Amino acid sequence: MGHNIFSNLSSKEYGDLMQLLKQSILATDLTLYFENRNTFFELVNKGEYNWNLKAHRDMCRSMMMTACDLGAVTKPWEISRKVAELVTSEFFEQGDRERSELKLTPSAIFDRNRKDELPGLQLEWIDGICAPLYEVKA
């Protein structure tokens, strides 16, 4: 037996909620993050972020979703290491498929033949992607 936690919502409220959830999930796509990142950082750093503007709130929600999605780097070492191993395994499998099926040379982070470069790439990832997002959110 299931429970419909949204049963008291009107059709419009339910539709709005589903749209919000969809946007929030899509916001974890790093392509969208990079499209909005500079604008968001600039608004925050200049003190021009305005909670009263829906566009600003939407952008903040997107940044928060990305911050949560990347959050493993903020966890204790054992957790962070385990997540990195899982992600690396997935990336290497994708790189293998790119090489065998598409006859492409995978980028370094997806290429198991370049696994010795991985620690440096992970540091670049943390310093260039994760840390700036957490710093602007602080």
Automatic annotation (TrEMBL):
GO biological process, one term: signal transduction
SUPFAM superfamilies, alphabetized: HD-domain/PDEase-like
Gene3D superfamilies (UniProt xref): 3'5'-cyclic nucleotide phosphodiesterase, catalytic domain (1.10.1300.10)
Source organism superkingdom: Eukaryota
Residues annotated as binding Zn(2+): 69
GO molecular function terms attached to this record: 3',5'-cyclic-nucleotide phosphodiesterase activity; metal ion binding
Keywords noted in UniProt: Hydrolase, Metal-binding
Residue stretches making up the PDEase domain: 1-138
Protein name: Dual 3',5'-cyclic-AMP and-GMP phosphodiesterase 11A
Gene: pde11a_0
